[in-house]
C-alpha cells in the first residue's frame, strides 16, 4: 500500500505516446496539446518519468465496441464522418462548433485518448499496477451522444465502465476540474454503483452552467451525484475546506473499491478560462488527498486523469508532473527547483520565463469544518448546501459529520 509521505513506491502505469498530441482542434484553440509535451519533458527532467516503479504503456485507439459502452452508435458514426470531412460539421451533436472545431482524424485522435484511460483502468483492474495515470485524458464534458467543452469521447466514463465490467462493484469518481464534470455525471446518473463527486466553480459563472447541489442522481441512484458549486474567486483555503468538508465523509460512507479522479488544473489563478484563484500548491494537495483516500478506502487502487488546463508553461506541466510523482509514491517537494534545461526550452520555444520552483509558495492552510459553519461566508454556504442535500442519504448529519 502507498503512503502519502512517499516512503513506499507504488507500481504505476502511465499511458502515453506522442500520437496523443494529435488531439488538436486548431492552432489557436485553448486545448493546446503542447501542454502534454511540456509535461513529459518536465517529468523527464526531474527524473520522475524514469522511476523504476513507473511503466509507460502506449495506448491503443479505443475500439467501437469499447466506445459503445458509454456512447451512442449514431454519435460515434458522426464523429467519424466529421473527422473524415471537417467541412461538414454536425453542430447538433456538438461537432464543428466554436468549442469543438472539426479537424481531420477527429475520431482516431479522440479514441486514442479514450484508449489511454481504458488501459490505465485495465492495469489497475488486472493488478499489474496499483495506480494508472493518463494526463492526456479527463474529457469529462462529453455525453452519450454529444461533444461539449473541448471533449469528444468521455474517457473518464469509459475507464469507469471498464472497471464495472471487470467486476468492480463500486467506483468513486472525484472531479476537481474548475468545470462541472457533467458528462460523467449524466452517463452514470441512474447507476448506484458509481458515485460522481464534482468540486467546481458554480455554474452561475462558468460553463457548463450545471452542477448545483440539488443535482443528486436519478430515482434509482439518489445521492450518487454530488456537486459542490463554489463561488468565483475561491482560493486554496476555501477550496480545500470544501473538499475536506464533503469528500472524505462520503468516500468513507460509499466504500469504493477503486477511485477514478480527474485533475484538471484550470482552477489556477493564472488560467484565463476560469475565475478561481488556486495555486499549484493547492492542486498538489488535492492530489495527495485523493491518493490518501484511495489508500484508506480502496486498498490503494486509483486511476488519475488530466483534464482542463490552459496555461501550458506555468501551470499544466508542474501540476501533472506532481500528479505522476504522487501516483508513483514519491511526491516532488514544492521547493524543488525546476530544472534549468526545461526552463531554457520554454524560453527558446515560447519566449517565456518559466517558474523557478515546482510550487507557487502559496499558503494552503484551510479551516477544518469542525471549527464551525459561518453563514456569512459564501464558501461555507456552498458547502452546507451540498451537505444538506446529500449527507442524510448516507446517514450523515449535515451539521456535524
Automatic annotation (TrEMBL):
Pathway: Ketone degradation; acetoin degradation. One of its GO terms (biological process) is acetoin catabolic process. Pfam families: Hist_deacetyl. InterPro entries: AcuC, HDACs, His_deacetylse_dom, His_deacetylse_dom_sf, Ureohydrolase_dom_sf. GO terms for molecular function: histone deacetylase activity. Residues 29-325 form the Histone deacetylase domain. Transmembrane segments: none annotated. SUPFAM superfamilies: Arginase/deacetylase (SSF52768). Keywords: Acetoin catabolism. The keyword RNA-binding does not apply. Belongs to the histone deacetylase family. This is Acetoin utilization protein AcuC. The lineage of its organism: Bacteria, Bacillati, Actinomycetota, Actinomycetes, Micrococcales.
